[in-house]
Amino acid sequence: MHFCRSKSDGHSDKPEDNYGNFDSDEEEKGYSPTPFLKGGKHFDIQAYASNYHRSTKILRLIFIADRFGNANERRRSMQLEALRIAYDIAKKGKDVNVFIKIVRKIDGRLGPNYDMDENWCNSVIEGRRVMSEMLQRCAKNCEKSYTERTICAEDARNVFNSIAVFYEDHGALTRAYAFYKKSVHFCRSDKNYSELLRRLIVVVIELGQFEASAEIAEKGMQYPNLNPITMETLRCALGLARFKSHCYKDAAHQLLGVSKELGNRFSKVMAAHDIATFGALCALATFDPIEFKNFI
């Protein structure tokens, strides 16, 4: 799997046609984050969720709802509060599959205002269908125009990047990944390459492809003119990949090495407190006392 940026400004390399079937069903997200929850009486679900970007915020809220269950009235109340917030956020987005999942979990317990909204679902699905047909034509015309030298690399990059964002917003992550990957071919500036790497690594992680995310991160970190925030994003992604592969000591080194300047800029995957918590726990589990003292 190669994601190296092309150094050439020429038009000799025709990008492969790998953007897939525009009309297939939505893909299921492969990454389900597991937050550390404080189960005290004053756990503020809204405040906790505010640390994350919309798609990850919904996944975290669903996770919370699943863990609280129906053991008692308080837990049921917190479960429904998490689902209520998730419903409101999902209705502002375009991922119908996630919305339906939330509605099924609510199961009518929040009243008619939080039932299935078929009109909204049909509107989003129809809008996506129409837009997908247009984007398919646009992608093919873009490749043809680039080959014929009637558009420059930057124009082509903008087209494929916009298409990738569209599919990512709709939860079609495999197609979003294909278009982000295609955009690499047209990157001609360090700024655009850095931005693309940040977008690409998030989609790969959401697909649950941690080996691929580690490969992208390692290769990206070798690029000489990488934006500092992108470098820290890739370091964090590499730490998460090491954690998922049970390489906890390496995960600790990567996560604890992330600069505080990253802040919550990686909130589509992890908030700042997640990075610190996972890094510290991995260090406690794998470092000897002297190493822990020196590193921390």
UniProtKB/TrEMBL annotation:
GO cellular component, one term: cytoplasm
Annotated Basic and acidic residues bias: 1-17
Compartment(s) where it occurs, according to its Swiss-Prot or TrEMBL record: Cytoplasm; Nucleus
UniProt keyword list: Cytoplasm, Nucleus, Signalosome
Pfam families referenced in this protein's UniProt entry, alphabetically: RPN7 (PF10602)
Domain of life: Eukaryota
Domain 26S proteasome regulatory subunit Rpn7 N-terminal, residue spans: 117-293
Residue stretches in coiled coil: none
Disordered: region residues: 1-35
Stated name of the protein: COP9 signalosome complex subunit 1-like
Organism whose genome encodes this protein: Cucurbita maxima
